[in-house]
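User: I'm putting together notes for a lab meeting next week and I want to include a structural view of one of the chains we've been expressing. I don't have a solved structure, so I'd like a prediction I can at least talk through. The sequence is below, exactly as it appears in our construct file.
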Amino acid sequence: MKTKHFLFSLLGMFLLFACEQTPEINDITPPVIEPPVVENPVISKAVFSGYAQKGPFIS
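Assistant: Thanks for the context. Below is the predicted structure for the 59-residue chain, given as structure tokens.
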């Protein structure tokens, strides 16, 4: 019984000392990625024909 208590307390100590505090990383800002500039965007209309259907249902 004493060995179980000793092992659990030893395991708890190992887990406690294994945790480490992480430093604050608030000073680093992510790089700003700007979208490419398009001078004259082309907008076109597309016409689709047909129909959409669900796959076959096997009952």
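A couple of points you could mention at the meeting. The first helix runs from residue 2 to 18. The chain is about 30% helix and 0% strand.

User: Perfect, that's what I needed.
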